Amino acid sequence: MHGVVPVPLLGRGDGERQIRLKASQGVRQNPPAGIPKAITAALAAAFHDAPARPDGTLAPYTCSNTTCHRNTRTVCGTPRARATGWRPHGVEEERMDWREVIDELEAGVERIVGTLSGLGDQDMRAPSGLPGWSRGHVATHIARNADSLWNLLESARTGVEIPQYPSLDARNADLDAGAGRSRDELAEDVRATAARFVEAARALPEETWNVPVKSMLGWPHPAWYTLYRRWHEVEAHHVDLAAGYGPADWPEPYVRWALGSTLTDIAALPEGRRGELDGLRITATDYGESADLGWTPGGPEASGSGRALLGWLSGRSDGVGVSLRPDGPLPVPPPWPHEPTGF
What residue spans carry the region label Disordered (predicted)? Predict the structure, then answer.
């Protein structure tokens, strides 16, 4: 792949919805556009393709978000919009070559395999950070997700619509069938399926990267965004193994992209769908930037480092490192992640 994709350090926005991602210096940022106490709010992250109701059951997806609608710029030969958003202080612009994104995925999978190698067979039967799932379920899901996203790349390559998964029931049956395997079998499955996905990504013709594909729930997005969906899977579910890897271990490029993507997704939710975050200002203290989620002067403000905020917003931490002013319990974020739209 010889094209480059702009990677936002923070933020995506939608001018038509008048989403307020308030940049302290009024800059614009490029798209595309990370083990919870509030576990039901994060249940969707166990599936990453299906949201959850407050009681933890799967629900139809109804919310929306965006990636941008202004100041176009070329991505793989096709105009893609730029968002009014925020970015870390003093950074003009960051671009990431597709191969660098793939490199991040390969490194992330190697970290997962390293974590698994430190566990035993019985450890794989122990509970994970996700309700009802053992570590074996999480490892199996990471592998089956690679297969499912390979399906989307193959769909883009051939022009034949291939579903990500045959069905939710079939996907869950595969997870249950694979969860009881040995540590070595699970680790090899994670490694081999990730390598197959990466091989397909590297070989995908440049002209097919913008071919539209669909997630299991029917979310449309260009084929190149499959890499970013996989990035979420690799980093978030590594935390879900509950084996010592946490938000503090996330690579900085992932934190920068995923925090901006997450905040924009939340900002773009229809009124009432932001839940307890409505009316909040969220500030990344290390980036010197803020996002207003319906905030008005005098309203509550949450602040912390980018990775502390991402851990909280993604349900991968209980909010350690995040401060709320005025004092009080941190709001419970809505289920994460959200539909990527506006491509």
Answer: 323-343
